[in-house]
Amino acid sequence: MAWKSPQPDIEACIDVHGNGCVVTRQRDGITDRTVSERGTIWLSPPDVQECLIDLSEPAPAVLHLYLSPSLFSPENLGEGLAQSAMAALRLEGGFLDPLVAEIAYALTSELTRETSAGGLLAETLVSSLVARLVQNHLGKPSPDFRALSRREGLDRRRLARVLEYIEANLEGELSVCRLASVACLSQFHFARAFKAAIGRSPHRYVSAKRLERAKELLGEREQPLADIALRLRFSCQANFTRSFRQATGQTPAQYRRGFVI
Questions:
Q1: CA pair distance 116, 236, nearest whole angstrom
Q2: pLDDT one-digit tens code per residue, 188-246
Q3: % of the chain beyond a pLDDT of 70
Q4: Are 39 and 10 in contact (CB under 8 A)?
């Protein structure tokens, strides 16, 4: 496979299956040859001019992530690290990073079996991935960045604003970007500050609140199950049923039948 059209995003490719195929990449005069295993990662900065990829045999599953330069902005990472982040990212081939690999596996799982708060999960994971890539390429965070990590938190007032916003928008499109804006934090720090304050990540908290709302709607016995699933941002009734059963041990229909008529 060969192409010459530069792409504007940072590309991260992660082998999420692994079968021992030999992957040869030639980009901008650099050749990399790797025996791919599960968790092998390739990283390409923006504006790579030429690329040739050769596989000794088909790779069963490789996740391609295209990371916009905006993800490396101060609004996402905080002020301490973002200014030089993009310049430091470089072409890398065939390396292993357990944290990046676990993020890729989680994203792949969400793509395969969507949940009601999958968008929040994906945003949180990608934010962590970006921070990890920056950390790996720049070494240890600067003192300013560490101080910012300690300083940025959710006090009672800001936490209350965020929780009120979530409650008011359970049936709407909730995003880490919007919640971080409500809290007046960068996206990267918001996810960590929220978990420190609540004990759960944003997507787990929203998932739990949406399941609580689902129980209320099921008790009203008026709406079809498919309508409830869509109202609460599940992609389909089957995903709603699976998530509800995992949380309660019952399907939505069984839960509804448990109410006294």
A1: 10
A2: 788 889 988 988 889 989 999 999 999 999 988 778 999 999 999 888 888 899 889 98
A3: 84
A4: no
